[in-house]
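Need a sequence for this fold. Nothing fancy.
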């Protein structure tokens, strides 16, 4: 680990001032500290923001949710409002990591976490995300766990967050505060596909803080859930995953929200699957036909071609679990 300076922000203004000067924010620290140990990240200054008042979970009057950036994963997963309104969020959080990590890691840190690509974390390997212009060792290396959607010639690393898949499905927004004031971004615009700049992963300006994440109200009744497929049952990242939320009224699907994880460079929204569901009656045949669109546009690599079919099966299974049949 390289030497660094540590400072603890007493309030938001102090944190923003330090961030504007180039300080890196830290709260739970479960990702950044790991990367510092591996010398992947080498910040000169860490700014501890753990005392900032960003720990509230609020159910809005319209029936949506606002979750503070410093709420722990464990707190969010156990919150009565989260579990009642959006089980998909609780399930995604509970499947994300060990209990110890969920107690430490924050909501803001979870969506900011960097890829688990082994080449990114190996400082001897070529990685455009870590060192722009150096190349992408994963493209010609062992790439079984890598992305098949949203890739570029520069990067094929998957985004690791389970929570982010649920937030993408539910059309969440991210609230930010920085030296220039406050702004709000659709979650789909907050996380960036690699394109030609894979080192730029979020649409964050210098010194900006995530203050909270907002999930809008959706029509009720709403059934939702998260399915994660992985090589082992615990403490493992997804090969594929599916977040599904369905509003079914009068025996007909009125609204469908579907996103996938483990397969994209960002959490991957599945609009073709959603369109195939809306206006239809739940049935096994519908789930299979809609899920057939889950891998549209996929570009498999040498070792991960199996993910396209696995993704379709994952989405079909979760549609059936959430939607049932009539």
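Here you go.
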């Amino acid at each position: 680990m390289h030497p660094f300076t540590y400072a603890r922000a007493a309030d938001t203004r102090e944190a923003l001032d330090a961030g504007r000067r180039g300080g890196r924010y830290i709260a739970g620290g479960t990702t950044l500290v790991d990367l510092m140990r591996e010398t992947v990240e080498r910040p000169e200054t860490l700014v501890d923001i753990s005392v900032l008042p960003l720990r509230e979970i609020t159910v809005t009057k319209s029936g949506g949710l606002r979750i503070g950036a410093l709420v722990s994963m464990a707190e969010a997963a156990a919150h009565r409002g989260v579990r009642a309104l959006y089980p998909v969020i609780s399930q995604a959080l509970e499947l994300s990591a060990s209990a110890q990590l969920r107690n430490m890691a924050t909501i803001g840190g979870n969506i900011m976490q960097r890829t688990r690509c082994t080449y990114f974390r190996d400082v001897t390997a070529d990685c455009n995300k870590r060192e722009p212009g150096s190349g992408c060792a994963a493209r010609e290396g062992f790439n079984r766990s890598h992305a098949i959607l949203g890739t570029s010639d520069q990067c094929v690393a998957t985004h690791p967050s389970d929570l982010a898949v649920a937030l993408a499905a539910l059309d969440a927004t991210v609230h930010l505060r920085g030296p220039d004031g406050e702004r709000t971004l659709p979650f789909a615009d907050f996380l960036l596909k690699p394109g030609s700049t894979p080192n730029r992963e979020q649409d964050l300006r210098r010194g900006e803080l995530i203050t909270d994440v907002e999930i809008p109200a959706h029509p009720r009744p709403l059934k939702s859930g998260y399915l994660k497929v992985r090589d082992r049952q615990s403490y493992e990242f997804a090969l594929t995953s599916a977040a599904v939320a369905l509003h079914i009224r009068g025996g007909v699907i009125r609204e469908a929200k579907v996103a996938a994880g483990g397969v994209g460079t960002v959490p991957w929204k599945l609009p073709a699957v959603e369109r195939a569901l809306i206006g239809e009656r739940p049935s096994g045949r519908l789930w299979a036909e809609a899920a057939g669109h889950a891998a549209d546009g996929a570009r498999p690599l040498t070792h991960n071609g199996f993910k396209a079919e696995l993704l379709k099966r994952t989405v079909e299974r979760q549609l059936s679990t959430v939607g049932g049949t009539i």
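For context: Residues 306-323 form the longest helix (18 residues).
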